[in-house]
Amino acid sequence: MYPLQRNRRLRSSASIRALVQEHKLSSNDFIAPIFVESGQGKQTEIASMPGYFRYSLDQLPDEITTLWSLGIKGVLVFVKEEDHLKDNKGTAALNPKGLMQNAIKTIKNTVPEMVVFTDVALDPYSSYGHDGIVEKNQILNDPTVEVLAHMAASHIEAGADGVAPSDMMDGRVLKIRECFESNGWTNALIMSYSAKYASSFYSPFRDALDSAPGFGDKKTYQMDSANKQEALTETLRDLEEGADIIMVKPGLPYLDIVHYLAQQIQAPIAVYQVSGEYAMLKAAAQQGWLDYDAVMLEQLLAFKRAGAALIATYHAKEACRLINH
Ligand code: PBG
User: Fold this and answer.
1) Which of 69, 148, 254, 293 is 20 to 30 Å from 157 at the Cα level?
2) Ligand 1 in contact with 121 (CB < 6 A)?
3) Is 249 considered catalytic here?
4) Could you confirm whether domain 24-323 is CATH 3.40.50.450?
């Protein structure tokens, strides 16, 4: 009771504030998304994601070395497939000499200790821009899951440490886990996008990979933004099916979901601060309306406070430059 208790005593100097701080960002928290494209000598800035680039394979080693030197221990790899290689079944995704498989090898050859997660979904390879196989304007679940398991296997064969299925088909974690076990890949990780919402925050990412859906939307497989209980149902099912890490996506607008799951489950929770969130902050900072660095760190800290163990973010490199001193 005041004045016996005064809240401001613990805030009265920078040192006492540091001593009683509950949460702290570290380079161990981050997973850096990596965009890869075909060709040579290319670093292509994504128009709706200023300061973020797609790299051709020959440019990857420098970027990976930089990330590692900043203390970043995990990457999440996405590829931009060439149009003429896209089809309904995502055939190009299974090519052992495909862009993803080569990217995995390049990253592992550069920094073997870097934990490489790969995106598993059909959309970058799909002529329809959907995460599954399309028939009569429907997204087929079970045939898609078969392809996803093959795709996941080809990533582990190429040297990935784990896969991150972002497709939201039912039962894909189980099929992928069974496939890994039957191959003896007992340590292969599954970081499952468990609570992935049908969000309008993904559009800059779809520019980056040229993967926008050709018709309709993704609401028959991604979750309704209005739902919270369903996030727990999805998550518990993915854990039962063999996921090691579960993910909530997008980030800041879904912080309640991160916090709720953190109270309900034991497994590590990853949060994905998505492309639209990055674009908003960049745009505001370009106008001079916000202090970019301060707002970025405040947002990232909010993820930890909410209970996330890992943060997939386009700010990973920038954040580490600020906090590593
Ligand atoms: C595709 C995928 C998407 C993202 C990650 N994997 C887009 C989508 O579902 O349409 C979005 C990432 C971002 O916006 O940063 N399976």
Assistant:
1) 69
2) yes
3) yes
4) no
Is 196 tagged catalytic? yes
Residue type for position 64: I
pTM of the full predicted structure?
0.97
Place of tokens 């001079």: 288
Instruction: Determine the distance separating the centroid of ligand 1 and the alpha carbon of 165, expressed in angstroms.
Output: 11
Catalytic residue among 80, 86, 89, 196: 196
Q: Is the CB of 277 under 6 A from ligand 1?
A: no
CB 242 within 8 A of CB 173: yes
Whether the Cβ atoms of residue 12 and residue 56 lie closer than 8 Å to each other: no
Q: What is the pLDDT of residues 54-100, one digit of tens each?
A: 999 999 999 999 999 999 999 999 999 999 999 999 999 999 999 99
| Surface-to-core class of residue 13, CB atoms within 10 Å of its CB (0-12 exposed, 13-18 middle, 19+ buried) | exposed
CB of 220 within 8 A of CB of 193?
no
Domain residue ranges of the chain, discontinuous segments joined by +: 24-323
